[in-house]
Structure formats: C-alpha cells, structure tokens
Amino acid sequence: MTITNGYEQSDRESKLDILNLPSLEDQARKIIPTGGFGYIQGGSEDEWTLRENTEAFNHVRIVPRALTDMENPSTDTSVFGIDLKTPIMMAPAAAQGLAHSRGEVATAEGVAAAGALMAQSTYSSTSIADTAAAGKRADGSPAPQFFQLYMSKDWDFNESLLREAMAAGVKGIILTVDATVDGYRESDIVNNFQFPIPMANLTKFSEGDGKGKGIMEIYAAAAQKIGPKDVKRIAEFTNLPVIVKGVEAPEDATLAIGAGASGIYVSNHGGRQLNGGPASFDALHSVAEAVNGQVPIIFDSGVRRGSHVFKALASGADLVALARPVIYGLALGGAQGVESVFNHLRDELLIDMQLAGTATIDDVKHARLVK
Known about the structure:
Elements: E1 2-4, E2 7-9, H1 24-29, H2 34-41, H3 48-55, E3 61-62, E4 77-79, E5 82-84, E6 88-90, H4 103-113, E7 118-121, H5 128-134, E8 145-149, H6 155-167, E9 172-176, H7 186-190, H8 215-219, H9 228-238, E10 242-247, H10 250-258, E11 263-266, H11 280-291, E12 297-299, H12 306-314, E13 319-322, H13 324-355, H14 361-365, E14 369-370
Parallel strand pairs: 6-13, 7-8, 8-9, 9-10, 10-11, 11-12, 12-13
Antiparallel strand pairs: 1-2, 3-14, 4-5
C-alpha cells in the first residue's frame, strides 16, 4: 500500500484470476478505504435504480442459434472511425486515485492493453495529458481515448480543459448532461466523505482542486442548465465528435443530434443520479429507434456479464461501457487488473456469440432477442 496525501491506496500490479465481475466488489471492499469505496460503489437514495440497472437485462432473452456452421467469433469493431479489438469500453469515472496510487494512468494502460477505448473524466486524479500519454498499444502507438466534460458555469475553464484534451490527441468529447446537480448519495453522507486527494484537472479552477470537498460542493460549481446550444458550442470549438451522455428519453436524443452531436450515450450515471428512473437498458431500445442509425450509440449502467454486452449491442448500442468493475480490478491489480477485467468480459461475450451463432459484432447487432 502507498500513502498519498494521507490516504492509503493500493499500488499492487498483477493479473487477476476472475470468476466473474460481481465477485470483484467484495474483494475491492477489503482494499479501498471505507469513504472511497462508498463513493465508488454507492448510488442515490435507496439505490433502486442502481440495482435495477443489472436486473433489467433479464427482461429480454437471447435466442440461441444452432447449425450455423461457424466458429471463432471476433469482437473486432470500428466506431467513430476508430478500430477496436472489443466493443467494451471504459466509462468515464472520477477520482480513480481512490482505488490505486497510479489512478487513471494505470487504467489507461490496462484499457489500451485490452485493445479497448478509454474515456477519462474531468474529475480524474491524473491530468488529461498524463492519462492520454499512458495509453499505448502493443506497437507503441497512442491508444484511442475520449475526454468527458462536466460543464462548468465558467466557460473559460471549460475551454481550457477542451484545449488540453485536443492537445493530448483525444478522439472525441463526451458531454455529461445528467449531472446538473448531484444525486442524493447516502453513503457519502454516512461516511462524511470528502475527497482526500486532488483532482488534477481542477488545479486551474477558481473553486479549488476538489481535495477536502464533498461531491455536492464540487457539483455546485457545475453548470446547472445545459441545452442544445452547449452541444453546438463544444462541437464548433473542438471540431471533434461530441457524444451526449446521460440520455434516456428519445426526445433528448433527437435534440442532441439536431444540435450537432456525433454520438448518443444512453446512461443513468450508474444509478447515481435520479433514483426511480428507468434502468438504462430499459431505455436503450426506444432511444435507438429515435436515433435510427444517424450516429453511434454508447451504452452503460449495470453491465456485469458478457450476455449483458450482447443484449445491449442487440438492442441498438455500438459500444458498451462499464466503470465500477474496472475500478475494482484497478484496486486489486493495477493496470494488469484492469486488463484482466476487460479480457474476462470479452471472453464471456465470445462464448455468448458462439452459442448465439453470431460471428461478428455486426451479427450480434442483428441477433434476435425476445421478451
């Protein structure tokens, strides 16, 4: 263990022998200090939506196919013009230094090793440049990354972050729109949680770097109204694809695309914001119908199994993201632990693809599901 700013963090580096992703939570609970674990694991209010996010995958079934004369399915895919070895990506998640001394730098290394797409958060514990530089493919070339923006009321600050992301070579901007205020997260209240480590991207922010503050204080400086004009402004400023994250209503997808969004991200913030809202998976199909193939769709919230990835792809997603299990893998094994999580989930997906008679990710997208 390493002590950083008075906070004990894991610094272990090892591949993990994973039975399944849900089992990682209890293992990580023993390593991540209580306040940090509560912040990572917790949802809002009584956490009904958090639980429903995973349960909702049981609302549809995969129809298995036989006599397909196929073997060795492939998870290779291309989205936003980016070639990937897997449709599974890292969702943006704050303050990963709570789980491991190397934080997002180690996550970026593990995601790159798995041939996946990394998304780094505004509230990262490592800088945009350092996180981007850490992601290297096996041949030494930069691995693709997105940068996620929590929009501030201060546009000078927003633009400074976007400039840093552009200089770091990110391939797209994820604009989070479902966090204009913080959800009521009781774990943070019970633990009186305040960030024990700074958030590197906030060092230039007039309100401070987040150390010693709770998440509600940090969100108080965020923009509390976000509209189509903001999507347009970011797209024009960066000339990069803007993916609007936090969409569950078809109308919002239509508004976002009309404002110039190059992607829609179906998510309820992992059950951390509006408790009592629909499971993200239950919202996916109707949003996908509204999008109608105009732009790619990213999906997250509750993903724990290869079959969940399969069902999301078959319901309209082009990429499927997750965060909590990856952060648990980070705590347990650093960059190698992160890679192990992605590889395990990909292996489960490959089994499902073979049994469903789907040789490619495009085949999965056309697979039959029944209620």
